[in-house]
Each structure stands twice: as structure tokens, then as C-alpha cells.
Amino acid sequence: MNRRRLAALLLPAALLAGCASVPSAPETTWFRLPEPVAGDRMQTPAVELPIVVETFLADGLYSDQSLIYTLDAEADRLRTYHYQLWIDPPARLLQRRLIAALRASGVSPVVTDRLPTRLETLRVQGRIARLDRVRTERGWEVAVSLVLRAEPSSGGRPWVIGEYHRQLPAPGDRVADSVRAYGQALDQIHADFIADLAGHARRAAAGDDALQMR
Question: Can you give the residue range of the structural domain that contains 67?
């Protein structure tokens, strides 16, 4: 067998061997938030109006399903994971979690994502300002900032307007550990927001309708 014919026979085998050695793409992992930890339930609803929580607003990177991280503590440069994704867009995930927290608290007899427009309701709007996994000298942390607003659908003075922020350490270096910390941060933010709603309702019942700002 001459050299040219031998090379023609060996070339396909070499190509196949080379293809077999190419590393496969990482497997995509989808994350859901952990179950919320409910606080004490109110004996009597503080808010008489039904509460409607609208889909959160999310600009830029925060509208995408990829988890976001940064390697500088100041979070000047954000990056996204290609294979680490939320199970749903964050705007939907956070809307549903806030609905669950409001229902569990007993702050209102009715909490939902929509009601007929003819009904008077307390509308809650949210915007994701931060939902970052942050690398610090101490390890990984999560930073969550939500801009929340509650106002009657009939108009008038808003009840609550403010930015709620938490930055908590993750219990480990895995992305799954950070997802657990996200759940804790959101539970704490929701507790603060519910307290502000209930506080405004009590003051309004006493004749003080001042806006609650954060």
C-alpha cells in the first residue's frame, strides 16, 4: 500500500478521533427560588382593599433569565451566566413570590395578580433595581434591591413608595447557595414592605394619611 493511499485511509479516523475529544457544552441548570419563610400571620387584615400585584418591571440584564454576577464589590461591571438560568423571567418570579408573601401575612383578605378594573384595589408595582451575585473578599454575597410602590386604583395619595435593599452572604460558593440567599433577602424585603403597608393602613384609620417613604 503506497503512502498516499494509507494517508487517505487514516485521515477520516483522525478526524473522528479529534471530534470525540472536543469537550461538550456545559449542561444548562435552571433555578427556582426556595420556598418562602412566612412570618407571623395577622389576626385581622390591616388593609381592607384587595391587593393586586402587577408584573414587575425589569430593565436591561434584569429582564433576562440568566443569573447575573459581578467580580467587583462595587458592581461596576456585571456579567451573565450562559448556562445558569432562572426557571422563569425574574419579573414573573418576584411578582409571584410577593403575592405569596402578602397572602401568607394576612395583610389583606384578597391578594392576586388581576381583578376587574371596576373594582377599587390597592395596586402594588415593583421594579428590579438589583438582583446580583457579588464576589467579595469574604466570599459570595447576593444583592437585591426592589423599588416598590402601593397606591389605590381610584387615585389619590400613594400609600408606600421606596427602595428596599438587602445584601446577604451566601452559605457557600455554589450558585445554588446564592439562590438560597436570594430567597432569604426577598423574605426580609417582603417583611419590611408588609410592615410599611400595615403601618400606613393603621395610621390612615387614625386620620393620618401621610405617605410612607423609604
Answer: 28-213
